[in-house]
Design a protein that fits this description.
The chain is of the alpha+beta class. Helix content is about 20%, strand content about 30%.
C-alpha cells in the first residue's frame, strides 16, 4: 500500500492539533461518499446519540475503504458534515479508534442546516490513495 506523506504544519502555517494541513501520495485515488449512521440493514444506529452515530459512520467508512483495497492508513482527506459542531468531540473519539494521531489526514468540518433526514447528526466522506 502507498504510504501518504503528512505535513501537519507547512512553513508559515500555524500547526493543527486535530488534522494535517497537507497530505500527499502517489497511487490510485479512492473516493468514499458521505457515510451515515446506518447498519447493514439500513437501520439508523444511535438515534440522538452522536457517539454511537460516529462509531457507526467510521465502521461504514472502514468497510467502504476495504472494498477498494484501502485502510484508514491510506486516507488523505476526511470531510465532516455535522448538524451541530458540538458533535466534533464524538467524531474525534471515533476517529481515534481507527486513525492514530501521527497519521491524521487533512480534514474539514462543515456545519449544515440538515442532512438527508432529520435523524442523522453527521455524514463523513473520505478520500484515500492506494498503490496503483
Amino acid at each position: 500500500m502507498s504510504e501518504p506523506t503528512r505535513i501537519p504544519a507547512p512553513e508559515g502555517v500555524a500547526p493543527a492539533a486535530q488534522y494535517s494541513h497537507v497530505v500527499l501520495g502517489t497511487g490510485r485515488f479512492v473516493a468514499v461518499s458521505g457515510q451515515l449512521a446506518l447498519d447493514e440493514e439500513g437501520r439508523l444506529v444511535g438515534e440522538s446519540d452522536p457517539a454511537a452515530q460516529a462509531h457507526q459512520v467510521f465502521e461504514n467508512l472502514r468497510r467502504c475503504l476495504a472494498a477498494a483495497g484501502a485502510t484508514f492508513q491510506n486516507v488523505v482527506k476526511l470531510t465532516y458534515f455535522v448538524t451541530d459542531m458540538a458533535y466534533l468531540p464524538a467524531i474525534r473519539a471515533a476517529r481515534a479508534a481507527h486513525i492514530p494521531d501521527d497519521l491524521l489526514p487533512a480534514a474539514s468540518a462543515v456545519q449544515v442546516a440538515a442532512l438527508v433526514g432529520p435523524q442523522f447528526l453527521m455524514e463523513i466522506e473520505a478520500f484515500a490513495v492506494v498503490d496503483g
